[in-house]
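Field log, afternoon session.

UNIT: design team B
ACTIVITY: writing a sequence onto a fixed backbone
BACKBONE:
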């Protein structure tokens, strides 16, 4: 049965139903409702909720809880995720599972509380120092945010890895009909690696510290092998009207749903546009995007940033078609009419010409 849910609260409830055992967080707009929901929901279920003194404390509490083999989670927004970078790197190196929700907002700096997508590099490129990637899942509807959060815990446990839900302030604040998944009543089975007390067994150790370079290289090689397995098995994307497309729009998250409207408008204007939507920002759907771009005359990337995913798109397209970019920043949201107008422009100028790069929509145009 569908119920009307606000994005932040729907994600929190999805995590509860996925069996989250412990949540640690710190309030920051536009994700505070997620924390508030957990504060009310978890204690009556006998689960752990802690409002930490900072985002740095929260991610290290997640690290500690994850080491015991439970389903651990935190959530924040862009500046808070920045503060968590060191802890995220420790978690990745220690190979413990956890889920992190990032409700992106306008930046850089404190910026504002409007939606943004400029955490793309922070999520897919860094997420802390060292050579690793989290699994990054980018929902475009509240229902998808629920489904990806629910599934994110299973992915985290399966691969003993960090899973990030890359949403934005618009998705966190909007309300949409949602069908909630069933309550997972299964507890996490005993893990051969978790720290639960050494009574009756040999002591175990979880650490990210490897002082000998040979040992640290061995850890890195193991991590890279795991990332290759994830990249082979967990790529997710959606294609919309791409079979006969002459122009391909690439967008993720909230912007993808706006781009879908623009594709429909373009089709009504006689422009055969299609939409390719990455759902996993990492692993990025490179092969699928390259295949989708082989028969188009142009690719248009639309993002709420200065063109961060556009780098991955250019690498994936690999010269099959010129790649153009349309961006809004600072919490500004692109509208369907401006995307459709850009598609009309690309159609007029025959986009086998050199691509127009980094086209920004100025506030006064």
């Amino acid at each position: 049965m569908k119920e009307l849910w606000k994005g932040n609260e729907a994600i929190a409830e999805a995590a509860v139903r996925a069996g989250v055992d412990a949540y640690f967080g710190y309030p920051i707009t536009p994700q505070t409702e997620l924390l508030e929901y957990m504060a009310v929901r978890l204690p009556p279920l006998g689960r752990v909720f802690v409002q930490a003194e900072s985002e740095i404390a929260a991610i290290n509490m997640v690290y500690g809880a994850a080491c015991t083999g439970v389903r651990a989670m935190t959530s924040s927004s862009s500046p808070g995720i920045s503060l968590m970078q060191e802890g995220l790197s420790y978690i990745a190196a220690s190979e413990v599972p956890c889920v992190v929700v990032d409700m992106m907002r306008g930046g850089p700096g404190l910026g504002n509380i409007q939606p943004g997508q400029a955490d793309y590099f922070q999520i897919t490129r860094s997420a802390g120092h060292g050579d690793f990637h989290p699994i990054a899942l980018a929902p475009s509807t509240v229902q998808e945010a629920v489904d990806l959060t629910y599934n994110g815990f299973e992915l985290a446990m399966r691969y003993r890895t960090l899973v990030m839900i890359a949403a934005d302030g618009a998705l966190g604040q909007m309300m949409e009909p949602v069908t909630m998944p069933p309550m997972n009543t299964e507890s996490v089975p005993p893990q051969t690696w978790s720290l639960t007390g050494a009574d009756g067994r040999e002591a175990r150790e979880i650490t990210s510290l490897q002082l000998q370079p040979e040992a640290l290289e061995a850890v890195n090689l193991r991590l890279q092998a795991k990332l290759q397995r994830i990249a082979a098995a967990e790529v997710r994307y959606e294609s919309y009207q791409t079979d006969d497309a002459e122009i391909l729009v690439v967008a993720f998250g909230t912007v993808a749903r706006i781009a879908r409207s623009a594709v429909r408008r373009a089709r009504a204007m006689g422009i055969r546009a299609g939409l390719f939507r990455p759902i996993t920002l990492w692993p990025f759907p490179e092969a699928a995007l390259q295949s989708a771009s082989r028969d188009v005359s142009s690719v248009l990337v639309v993002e709420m940033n200065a063109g961060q995913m556009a780098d991955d798109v250019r690498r994936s397209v690999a010269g099959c078609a010129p790649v153009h970019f349309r961006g809004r920043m600072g919490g500004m949201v692109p509208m369907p009419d401006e995307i459709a107008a850009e598609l009309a422009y690309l159609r007029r100028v025959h986009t086998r010409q050199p691509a127009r790069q980094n086209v920004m929509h100025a506030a006064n145009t």
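LOG NOTE: The radius of gyration is 21 Å.
NEXT ACTIVITY: expression trials, pending approval
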